[in-house]
Design goal:
The complex is a heterodimer of chains A (197) and B (181).
Chain A (H helix, E strand, L loop, with lengths): L28 H11 L5 H23 L6 H19 L13 E8 L3 E7 L8 H12 L3 E5 L5 E6 L3 H11 L8 E5 L2 E4 L2
Helix pairs in contact in A: 2-3
Chain B lengths: L11 E4 L2 H14 L7 H4 L6 E6 L3 E6 L2 E7 L5 E2 L1 H6 L6 E4 L1 H7 L5 E2 H5 L14 E6 L7 E5 L3 H7 L3 E8 L3 H4 L5
Parallel strand pairs in B: 6-8
Antiparallel strand pairs in B: 1-2, 2-3, 3-4, 4-5, 7-10, 8-9, 9-10
Classes of the chains: A alpha+beta (197), B alpha+beta (181).
Amino acid sequence: MAEKLEPVKVLYCGVCSLPAEYCEFGPDFARCKPWLVENAPDLYPDLLKANEKAADNVSDKLQSVGISSGGADGAPSSAQTGGTSKKEEVKRLPGGKVKKKDRQEVIIEKVVRNKRKCITIVKGLELFGIKLSDASKKLGKKFATGASVVKGPTEKEQIDVQGDIIYDIVEFITDTWPDVPERSIFFIEDGKKVQAG
Amino acid sequence: MFKKFCLEEISSQNQVKASVQRRIRQSIQDEYPGLESVMEDLLPKKIPLIVVKCPNHLTLVVVNNVPLFFCIRDGPYMPTLRLLHQYPNIMKRFQVDRGAIKFVLSGANIMCPGLTSPGGVLDVEVDAERPVAIYAEGKQHALAIGFTKMSAKDIKSINKGIGVDNMHYLNDGLWKMERLD
């Protein structure tokens, strides 16, 4: 019997979740840097030095503001700080990697079954803080049809209403839930999203 | 493989029968004899094993909501990187040179020259179609898990084209899915 293996503890970056040594190849190294300096200083010795340098530069700059003769020294440091602030702006809009927050919109789709019967599917009401069970009951009552809360294909809940109620569902939604603006209601027609109203 | 992968991709997740569970355990153990001593910790017999099926014939083995292994079609089970980091010696290792890291981490398959260059290391015993751990020059931990397209000898002699298919790499969808709920 072999000796029991002990799991190796790996230091994962608190910012990008990669093992710390891979941060430099990660999605956003600049953001990891502060964390790395704090938690894994030995991994990136250059970084520490660079950081000190940057700090020096900043203090230089502060001084130069006072004396206003920083000249050569002040210019690069200000460029540097400009660069970092730019990065911070990008940070807030991380492209692609971070999952986009669901846009608040209601999507209405008509699915035809048996050629002449159809189901109207309403998705996204929950994004407006509407209880789906209540909503389905109200829809059912208004249109005198079956309406149920169903788990959609992506684990999200949606309301299936029997029958074609597309013609006045928009009005109904905006009347019953004033929180839902008409411009955030969309139809799906031939696979394309079309704004209602 | 897992470049885009999220919870929405899961088509079904089932708690499997004891017999299936046994079979999975057995095949994992056959594949990674180094794991024998910790099998009981990893896949306890008592705790139900959950098999998550995803599109593209992909299966994940999940215990306590943590994905541990994955496999494609009826292929061998491969550990997730988080698991491999914990037990690094269970798999045969290849090493790529520093220049390749960037590409591997964005999901590229591993090309032969990256493995044969001075920064790369090949384990000569590896045959074609085996799972391997991909390490990188100057780094301690694995950065990807691959599936060899040709044997190590061929990689050396042909030295062209894709040597290892990149299955799972750092910061891909599966990596980000630390826990499943």
